[in-house]
TrEMBL record:
Segments traversing the membrane: 20-45, 280-306, 327-355, 375-399
UniProt-recorded name of the protein: Lipoprotein-releasing system permease protein
Subcellular location(s) per record: Cell membrane
Domain ABC3 transporter permease C-terminal: 284-406
Family from the record: Belongs to the ABC-4 integral membrane protein family. LolC/E subfamily.
Organism domain of life: Bacteria
Swiss-Prot/TrEMBL GO biological process terms: lipoprotein localization to outer membrane
UniProt source species: Granulicella arctica
Topology of the protein relative to the lipid bilayer: Multi-pass membrane protein
Length: 416
């Protein structure tokens, strides 16, 4: 062990008459540990929120959507769909017909976004149909859907879990779907409506989908909206979701004039920007805890220099250089910071692992979009937090270590 490190470690073990210095040193270690642990947990939460939201958004919806610029829907869509499926980087494509509707059951009702789909194609671009935990989505693949409306059974529908709770609906119940796109009669515009049988209830864990989304067969949606053989969107999965913008531009160019694309990054840009800003602000605020701990280190070392003035003078009279004295107190502050940082990393990662594994903190999904608090600690966070902690603590040691180096042996020992 180097001479300076040996003396620094020795000074940390305060004697009984220096108990106040020892208490302040312990408080400094605890302060650094608390600041580091708080930073690790806060960064793990923001990373977990971003990761879970991104996974659920990307898994539940398509990477790229193609629509008409005028918004009047896509006709003669089958040749277009076949041509776009063959484009490079496109792994799957599915047609869909969206429409805002009112879904009711008895006296209870709720607004919803119904999507007419081809189930086999829809499963290749989104996983909401795989998230059915009550009933089954298999009825959406019933080939009798092409039969005339007066010759077939009640059409099936799959709805979100929160929407089902709003309606008080269960599997095999009947709901009334009303479309604002009605028929013009002598009495005015009469909304169109159709009764559907609830065959499945999905639960994605993402409130936006669970509270408003519903799926039915494409032909049933076309009948409800009086739009035969029309779709409103073609959804795509691509081989690299982070290049969805460039691939979307290629799809738009291949589709021709009058089409435009959006991608998952554009649709959720504000959400991820808010999460990033929250992460930065949280880091700055909680870093103040480390700064407070650094002030404790400054106070502890200043008091240590005052207590050890005679010892410093004796060391310097034995030939110890001023640079070595400065290094002693620099190393002493660094030891406090290292011990606190290591303890903070252990506590922070331990609590983050427990929170992510057991999911014991639940959230209101209607407010936070997910129903539990996710944790996703990263190694890079530990590197950044440790660097900040050690850097701030090192700055705090500059003044007391400089004061120790300026001690004059003759003046310090004059009255001893």
């Amino acid at each position: 062990m180097r001479f300076e490190l040996f003396i620094a470690a020795r000074y940390l073990r305060a004697k009984r008459r220096q108990a106040v210095v020892g208490v302040i040193t312990a408080i400094s270690v605890i302060g650094v540990a608390a600041g580091v642990a708080s930073l690790i947990i806060a960064l793990a939460i923001t990373n977990g929120m971003r990761r879970d939201l991104q996974e659920r958004l990307v898994g539940s919806t398509a990477h790229v959507d193609l629509m008409r610029v005028a918004g009047d829907g896509i006709r003669d869509w089958r040749p277009l769909l076949a041509r776009l499926r063959a484009l490079p980087h496109v792994t799957a494509a599915a047609p869909g017909l969206y429409g805002q509707v009112l879904i009711s059951r008895g006296a209870r009702s709720g607004g919803g976004l119904i999507k007419g789909i081809l189930p086999d194609d829809e499963r290749t671009v989104g996983n909401l149909l795989q998230a059915v935990d009550e009933g089954s989505a298999d009825a959406l693949s019933n080939p009798t859907s092409n039969a005339p409306a007066n010759e077939q059974a009640m059409p099936p529908i799959v709805i979100g879990n929160d929407l089902a709770e709003t309606l008080g609906a269960k599997v095999n119940d009947t709901v009334l779907v009303t479309s604002p796109q009605g028929e013009l009669t002598p009495l005015g515009l009469v909304p169109r409506y159709q009764r559907f049988e609830v065959v499945g209830i999905f639960k994605s864990g993402f409130y936006q989908y669970d509270s408003s989304y519903a799926f039915t067969r494409l032909v049933d949606a076309q009948r409800l909206f009086s739009e035969p053989d029309l779709i409103s969107v073609v959804s795509f999965k691509v081989d690299n979701l982070y290049h969805a913008d460039r691939i979307g531009q290629a799809i738009e160019a291949a589709a021709g004039k009058g089409f435009q694309t959006t991608n998952w990054m554009e649709q959720n840009r504000e959400l991820f920007r808010a999460l990033k800003l929250e992460q930065v602000v949280t880091f700055i605020v909680l870093a103040l805890i480390v700064c407070v701990a650094a002030l404790n280190i400054l106070i502890a070392l200043t008091m240590m220099v005052m207590e050890k003035t005679r010892d410093i003078a004796v060391l310097m009279s034995f030939g110890v250089r001023a640079e070595q004295v400065r290094r002693i107190f620099l190393l002493q502050g660094l030891l406090i910071s290292v011990i606190g940082t290591v303890l903070g990393l252990i506590v922070g990662y331990g609590l983050s692992w427990a929170g992510g594994h057991y999911r014991f903190i639940h959230l209101d999904a209607s407010v936070y979009s997910i129903d539990y608090l996710p944790f996703a600690p990263r190694v890079m966070d530990a590197v950044i937090v440790a660097a900040v902690s050690l850097g701030v603590s090192l700055v705090a040691t500059l003044y007391p270590s400089g004061s120790a180096a300026r001690v004059l042996p003759a003046e310090a020992l004059r009255y001893e």
